Structure formats: C-alpha cells, structure tokens
# Entry
Amino acid sequence: MTSDIADLLPCPEPVRFLAPDGTRVEPSAQAAARGYAFPEPEELLAVWRAIVLGRRFDAQSTALTKQGRLAVYPSSRGQDACQVAPILALEEQDWVFPTYRDSMSLVTRGIDPVEVLTLLRGDWHCGYDPQRTRTAPQCTPLATQAVHAAGSAHALDRRGAGAVALCLIGDGATSEGDFHEGLNFAAVFNAPTVYLVQNNKYAISVPLAKQTKAPTLAYKGIGYGVRSEQVDGNDPAAVLAVMKAAYAHARGGKGPVLVEAHTYRMEAHTNADDATRYRTPDEVDEWTGQDPIVRLQTWLVAEGHLDEEQIEQVRAQAEEQAAALRDRMNAEPVVEPLSLFEHVYAEPTPQLLEQRAMVQAELAGQAASADDAQSAGAGSSGQDAMKESTR
# Structure
C-alpha cells in the first residue's frame, strides 16, 4: 500500500472522544496520528446549547404534523450531534447542501424556523433565500445535492472564495448514482467539498446490510481518491473535531473529504412510517443509552463547565422558542394558487400554460359560484324582510 492510499483510508474504528456514559476516552492511535484535537469547553458548550434548542424544535415540528400544520416532518432526534456540530464549525462564507431530514441543521445555521418548515408545510418553494443564507433548498430526491455541492464548491474555488461546501446525506443516498458522480467530480476537480453521511442504519425501512457490502460507508470514498473518515456520530466532541479537520483539509486545497457518522434515527422515517415493523425495541433501547445530549452534558457538568441553573435557562429558552413556533405555525398561510406555475421555466412551455389556464378557469368558476350563493342569500334575506314588513 502506498502512503497516498493509506492517507485516504478511514480509521479502523470510528473516532471517539466521549464514551456513552460521558467519560473521556483516548482516541485510537490512528485518530491521534491524524491530529484530531479535543474541542475547547466553550465550543462544546455551544454545541450542547444548540442541540438542546434543536431537539426541542424537532419535537415541536413532529407535534405540528399531528395537528395538521405540517404535511410531513422527518425527525432527526438522535442524530443531533451530526445536525449541530458540523454547522457550528463552518465559516461565514461556506455553503450547506441539506436533505429533507436536516431541518435542525438549518435552524442551527440561524434560518427562521418557520422558513425552514415552509417546504414541509407544502409550499412550492423552500421558504428561505438560498443566496442570503448560503444554504441550498432541502433536497428530497436522494443524493442529487451531492452533485450540486461538488459543482458549487468548484465554482467557489475558481472564484477564490476560500469557502467549502458541506453536503449532508443519509446512508441510503450512498446507493444512488448522483452520490458517486458528485464524489468523482469533486475529486477530479479538487473541489473543496465535505460530504457528511449520517448513517442512521435504515434507508426508510431497509437496513444497512441490505444496502451495501462495503466494510463501512467511508470506504466508498477510496475508489474516487477522496480522503475518508468515520466517526461516532453520537459523540458531539468527536463529530466537531473530525469536521473541523475535514474543513481545514478541503479549504487548504487538498481536495474533498467523505465522513461517515455512525448514528441512529430514534423516531420513524417520517410521521407516515411505522418503525416498529422493521426494528426491535431492544435495538432502540441500546441507542437510547448513547444519547448525544446526555453524553455531552454529563461531561460538561463533571468538568465544571455547566451547572443546573444554566441547564434550566437553556431548557426555558427552548420552551419559549417552541411556543413561538407553535403560535406562528397556527396562523393560516396566504397562498396564491397561480404562483405554483411561476419560476418553473424561464419560458413557460405550452403544457404549463395550458395547466395554468385550467387552474385559473377553475378559480374563476369557484368565485362565480360564491358570488351567486351570496346574491341568493341576500335576495332571500330581502324577501324575508318584505314578508315581515307586511305582517
């Protein structure tokens, strides 16, 4: 094996700094050789706070589906460390390319929660300004954003922006062609792209063993010449350390990085899924014991960086934000049906114009029916009044 190939290989075991019980563990020799540094306490406090706020947002969003305020919501509870730490390690000029499960990441990035949920509410647009937030729309087709991220990173590099593109994907997306095309393009053009695979063990209901024969998903980067790594995705300290190193690698002109985070989706795929049909309670219990909030909070408290008063303050803030989100989402949105046909093509096709005309005619018919009903009601009231006056 040449040294170049060895440099691409992930560590044999996922990088870990905090055990599930919150105690500090030494990284493996391979991880230490790569120079992963245990984050500063202030950085971990920021990650913990964002996770607490993000998980409350996640729970409130799940509740909104049951109230009919959201069409669908894919929860990321359990993947919180992967949702928060990579975002907090980004710099202002960097870009994010998320999936439909990454709403917590977008809230952590500072995007208005109502704007984050606009697409999942059923609107035709993503709700926020991608240019202003440097965040692409949440991608529903699997892995298409892998190509977008590679191309954008290449463009940013050519402009000398000094920025990286973070592409968030799930384990199921690594079976899609776009994932491989994106990785290959990023490698060939040395595009500063960092791919974070959140391996939550299921592609909807399909377990990882039915998705791949690779030793780990991180090995999928090797064939494209992409430096790869694997990390304990429920260890916020390890995720932050590995992602910071990946950004430094890509930003330094050394090419893309593929990181596989081993984590677990605690909720069902979406509110329309029944996870009890494909996984056992024992499996869920095992991962409950690896909760990233408990793990990090335990370490912070034990080391004197966090106390009960601070914990209560952040919990109260999370409740206030959830209540504000609930109130704002309870307001009926104003929807213009014909806006559905705008911004689809620069020059609308004949078929699109025909469809627009059909909707417009239907709306006109509904309006006319409403006017007729109102006139009939007014006429009936007038006749009743005349009858009353002649009695």
